[in-house]
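We give its fold:
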Amino acid sequence: MDIAVRDVTMDQLEQVAPLWDQAWRVSGRRRTAVPLALSIDRMRRRVDLAAGGGYRFLGAWIADEPVGIATVSLTDGGPMMDAPGVHIHVLHVDEEHRNRRVGTALLAEVTRWAGSLGSDQVVVDVPPASRDVARWYAGWGFGPYLNRRVGTTSGIRRRLGLRGPVDLTNGRGRLAAVTGMGRAAGR
């Protein structure tokens, strides 16, 4: 069984759309399917982004069947990393093709690309409930790095006491509208 990993092209989007939808449902980000047109639009933006460099949308194929996808980008890693790295945003294998080295083939291409960019680090975010996924990455040498926290913009704005649109025309926003800042900051 030969696994071919290559960049997804615009004419392959409808073929990989079911994998894209599976990846989002499995991640816990979405419980129901998104209309195909919306999924294809989101994938189209990633193929466009890949054309500019610094980003890749990969597909794994067995014969003519897509069996896995990955999206990765170059990242500066912030002040905690010594050098730029490659960030895996999505690495998903079709449920019927798991344990057949499809994920391994995708990861191998990611590390090949990272090496070609001179990057010595690959970063991945794993949802806390995905213990099997965390173990899979740990088996390849990934270890804990940061404890990432995510909040919705609307929820954070509500807790900061911000109402209405933020005026960014002066480059400073309308922070004068913030009340109870000490409480919001944990003071």
Q: What stands out?
A: Strands lie at 3-7, 55-62, 65-75, 85-93, 122-124.
